[in-house]
């Protein structure tokens, strides 16, 4: 989507999990706002596809569960662009099962990607931002970071942990003029994550049809519609801009009123 307002002109931004879905939408919005974007994903071909369509971008293959790959991501970004202004920690997975169905390995995998992956990326960019004495870290969290999620304990635990990490890093990095915030979207009911995975997982878990699952989650939203990519990226651009220079340690709901805490 082409926009006249370019609030992030010449910012250097890293986006993880940017090969599809919300991550891709974030990369495209940052590009439209004037940022230079490092598009990273565990699927390198997907990252290349997105980066090729942007004005000034590079693609990197990054598995966020491997710290050395996150460190290399930060190094290459500085080598290419000279600095890092913004990290958007978006990479994530969701496996929804009851506690009696989850294996320890599956549960840990969700924590590894969603929470340890966020830590690894923040750890990789923090020394660079500290040296710059300026930076911005935004985690894509979830409404499940504010309230438990039925038969979805690994995801909720990873997202609750992400808010704790966000607040802790905000305190630790504030003296270096580095802001750390999280965005907690509602249900992106038309996204690839839902269409290709979650409707099926939730229908199986809850004994409902996919259409009944959609209607169930829509009925929980006071504003009566699903969350969209624009809803999320509008808030992200604000947080990434100097307009939010007095905001750190926040976990901002973008849920249509479904979550208000």
Automatic annotation (TrEMBL):
PROSITE patterns: ADH_SHORT. It comes from the Bacteria. InterPro entries: NAD(P)-bd_dom_sf, Sc_DH/Rdtase_CS, SDR_fam. Gene3D superfamilies: NAD(P)-binding Rossmann-like Domain. NCBIfam families: PRK07231.1 (NF005559), PRK12384.1 (NF009050), PRK12826.1-2 (NF009466). Belongs to the short-chain dehydrogenases/reductases (SDR) family. This is Sorbitol-6-phosphate 2-dehydrogenase. The lineage of its organism: Bacteria, Bacillati, Bacillota, Clostridia, Caldicoprobacterales.
């Amino acid at each position: 989507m082409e926009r006249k307002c370019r609030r992030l002109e010449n910012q250097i931004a890293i986006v993880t999990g940017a090969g599809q879905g919300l991550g891709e939408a974030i990369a495209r919005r940052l590009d439209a706002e004037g940022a230079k974007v490092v598009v990273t994903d565990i699927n390198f071909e997907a990252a290349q596809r997105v980066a090729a369509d942007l004005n000034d971008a590079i693609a990197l293959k990054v598995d966020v569960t491997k710290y050395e790959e996150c460190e290399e991501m930060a190094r290459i970004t500085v080598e290419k662009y000279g600095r890092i202004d913004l990290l958007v920690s978006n990479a994530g997975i969701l496996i929804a099962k009851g506690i009696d169905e989850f294996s320890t390995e599956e549960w840990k995998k969700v924590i590894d990607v969603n929470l340890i992956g966020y830590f690894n990326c923040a750890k990789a960019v923090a020394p660079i931002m500290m040296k710059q004495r300026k930076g911005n870290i935004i985690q894509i969290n979830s409404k499940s970071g504010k309230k438990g999620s039925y038969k979805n304990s690994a995801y909720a635990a990873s997202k609750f942990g992400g808010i704790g990490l966000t607040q802790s890093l905000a305190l630790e990095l504030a003296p270096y003029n580095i802001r750390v915030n999280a965005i907690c979207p509602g249900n992106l009911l038309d996204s690839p994550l839902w269409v290709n995975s979650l409707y099926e997982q939730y229908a199986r878990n809850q004994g409902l049809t996919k259409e009944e699952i959609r209607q169930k989650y829509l009925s929980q939203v006071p504003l009566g519609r699903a969350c969209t990519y624009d809803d999320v990226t509008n808030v992200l651009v604000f947080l990434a801009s100097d307009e939010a220079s007095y905001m750190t340690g926040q976990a901002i709901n973008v849920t249509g009123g479904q979550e208000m805490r």
